[in-house]
Structure formats: structure tokens, C-alpha cells
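Forwarding these from the shared drive since the link keeps breaking.
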Amino acid sequence: MDTLLADERPIARKEYHCQASDWIRECGWADGDWSQDEAAAIEAAKTDGWKIHKGERYVYQTGVSDGEMVTFRAKVCLHEICLRHNLYDA
């Protein structure tokens, strides 16, 4: 995102796809590259179908990218993993 307009942690009113999971699955890291806690969070998200479920707190960001409005939604735990390992910059 070129310009971040909103960065919130709402509670989901419906189911969404976790966009942080896309970055984790496409980063090229092997299962053994994650810490034990990270691997457990990733496995739990995978078991959940990479979804943010109704009633779950999640990351909600809106902004501008290449002149267009964009929305990003992610599970908090997966978003934190991506930030910790700079996966969004990859």
C-alpha cells in the first residue's frame, strides 16, 4: 500500500479470506523455518481454511495502491508473523 488510510482491529461480522496467509504460503519457507509457535498458528489457520471467522478479531487496513483503493484483511497472528519476518516486503 502506498498510502495507509485506516488500520483497525475490528471483530468480523462475516467470514473473510485471510490475505496474510497468501504471503505466508508464497514466501518459499519450509515448515522447519518457522518457530514452534509460528508453525502452530500457521497450521491452525490452514485447518480453518485460511479464513477469518465471524466473531474473530482481525486486521483491517484500507489505503491507496497505484492510485486505487485497496482493502487488506488478515488474522492477527498471521499478520504479526508476516511483519516479524518482513514477508510483505518480499
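-- next protein --
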Amino acid sequence: MDTEHGPRSAWPLLIASAVAAVGVSSLLILDHGLWNRPVPSPLVVRYATTEDAAKAAHAVVTPTLPKPALEPAAPGPKRVQPAIPENKS
């Protein structure tokens, strides 16, 4: 098949296909090869509550104090008035 710029070549398509095939096959071999066996996870102990886990670790659980209903005023300087207040007339 000829065009105004000359004959079309299938070589770029063949080279790109070969590079893609080599890349995909190497990924499959490296990721799923015989030497890549799953490693068993270490023993994981699960506890139903935090208290059970603390007892197993010989720790003491101290409850947190309840939050007061009214928060005290924040320390630091008070907010200032804006430089240009809104006109409310």
C-alpha cells in the first residue's frame, strides 16, 4: 500500500508488539515464578477488648476523664474588631 509519503511499513508495529510481549511475559515470570512463594504471616493474637489485650501484656488500663459540658475560654489574646466594619444602616 502506497501513500503520498511512500510505502507504509509494518516494522514499527512488529517491534512494538515484540517489546510489549517480552515485557508482559517477564512481568508474569518475575511476579508469579516458582521462587516467589507466599510467606506465612507470623502468629497474630486477637483480643475482644482493649482490657483483654492489656491484661495479656500485664498493663493497667486507666479510663479517661469525661469531657466537661462547658469548655473553658481559650488562652491567648482576644479577637480584634475588623479594620473596616460592615455598614449596617
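The mean pLDDT is 81. The CA atoms of residues 57 and 85 lie 60 Å apart.

- D.
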